[in-house]
Amino acid sequence: MKNIFQRNWYIEVRRSDNGQLQAKTSYVDTTREATAHLLVDVNSFIIEEALWEEQKSSKPIGARTRQVTPLQGSEAYFSSGLALREAATFLKDPLAVPLFSETVKGIIQAETFLLSERGYSSEDEYDQKWTNFYLGSCRYYSNLDKVTMSWYEHVGESKRSGNLFVRFKTQSLFELREGQYLLIGNLSDSFHEVNVRLKLDEFTVKEADGVLLRTPDIICREAASLLVNLHGLDIRGISKKELARLLGKGQGCVHVIDLVSDCTQILDTLVRKVV
């Protein structure tokens, strides 16, 4: 078994002493290295500064550091999709969308520890807001009658200072033998720990499995069994929407879906070069 490509993501959200959040996503793969930075108001989540750093690329680098003005003044929350696409157009780099998107996701996760700043009077009020917002969207929020642990029972606290949230993601492509490949994706963050494994014959999934090692509730772990739905699938160019359908949509796990999507992106850019 030979490792032929891998990529790594590190997302971090820190609280500073001056009412700001410092968030970044650092990305390294076999040919590229880049970082997306956001400086965000801790109360409004409005982006005060956005910075793009390019450390390494297979193409000539025009500017190693750039202010990303299309993101300034927008909210680092669920409504940020249009601004993220504008940032990618501004930078002329499709990698900007996933990196800034991961940074925004980290800020949303960090809200768990910013209750008073975000206008919540209690853990229960915050928990209820998320229950209403996410109802039916994933294994946890589609089976609330079976859930045995609340969000803050899982998290363990609602107050943090300094580092609020971290997430590590990795995807690796291995050549097993000619025409056969293994894709592995891992995620570990402040709240979750997930692994997926896809064994491929050319582009067709021969085996698919995974495990959720750390989750908000034990019921989340049942979502790993849905990976069997990928068996026999040609995953060239498959959309994330189609992956979500195959992996259970509201009965699945968003992190499993994200990891499988991350893995298929490696194929879209690399397998054509190595098969």
From TrEMBL:
InterPro entries for the chain: DUF2889
Descriptive protein name: DUF2889 domain-containing protein
